[in-house]
C-alpha cells in the first residue's frame, strides 16, 4: 500500500509549522497542506524549502482567518474575517468562493512552488455546493484532490477525472488518539492500493492556543506520529510512505 500521512494547517503558526516538520523528519508524515491566508505561511514555505522530501499541498480556507480577496461579503462577518463555523456556507456565493480559492492558489504559485494536491480546512471542499468548484480548479491545474466522498457527498456521473487516493481516513483526531489507534487505522486501510491519513501535529504556541479549539491534542498527535512503534509497524508491513506526487 502507498500511504500518504498528511499534516493539515501548515502555515497556521510557527508552532504548528515546527511540529509538522518534526513529524516529517522524525516520524511518518510525508505531506502537509498550507493555509495561504494565515500568518505563518511564509515561515512554512521557508521550512518546506529546507525539507524537500515533504510534499506541500494547499489547504483551501473558508472558515478561519481573513480572505485574500477584498470583496466576498457572503463569506465574511462584520470584521471582514471569514465567518466561523459552517452554517454560512449554505448560502455563499459560488462566484465568491471560486474567486477566493483562486486567490489562494495564485498566492501559492507566486511563492515559487506548485502544490502537490488540494484539500480544505474543515473539509469544506466536500460540501455539495463547493465540491464542483474545487474539482474544476483541480482539473484546470492538473492537481490531485483529497478524497472528498468520504464525507457528505457522493461521486456523481459528471465528476471530472481528478486524481485521488483509493481510501481516506480522518479518524486520527480527537482526545483518544494513541499509538494503537493509529496502527489500527493503518491496518484498516491496508486493502487499498493508495490511502491518506489526515493528521494535525504541532507545538502549541500562543496563536494556536488562543485561535483553535483543537490545540493541546496536537502535541499528542506529534508524539504518536514520531513513535518508534509506529515506524516499526510500517516497516514490518512494508507500507510505502509517499506524497500525492507518487499516486496514479
UniProtKB/TrEMBL annotation:
Top EC class of this enzyme: hydrolase
Query: InterPro entries attached here?
Result: COD_ChbG_bac, Glyco_hydro/deAcase_b/a-brl, YdjC-like
Signal peptide as annotated in the record: none
- Could you cite one Gene Ontology molecular function of this protein? hydrolase activity, acting on carbon-nitrogen (but not peptide) bonds, in linear amides
For this protein, the Enzyme Commission number is 3.5.1.-
Q: Which Pfam families match?
A: YdjC
Query: From the record, what ranges are coiled-coil?
Result: none
- Please list the GO biological process terms of this entry: polysaccharide catabolic process
Keywords attached to this Swiss-Prot or TrEMBL record, sorted alphabetically, are: Carbohydrate metabolism, Hydrolase, Magnesium, Metal-binding
CDD domains associated with the record = YdjC_EF3048_like
Domain of life the protein comes from: Bacteria
Q: Which cofactor does it need?
A: Mg(2+)
Q: Where does Mg(2+) bind?
A: 59, 121
Quaternary assembly: Homodimer.
Please give the family membership noted in the entry. Belongs to the YdjC deacetylase family.
Name the NCBIfam families on file: PRK02134.1 (NF002559)
Query: Its function?
Result: Probably catalyzes the deacetylation of acetylated carbohydrates an important step in the degradation of oligosaccharides.
Q: What is this protein called?
A: Carbohydrate deacetylase
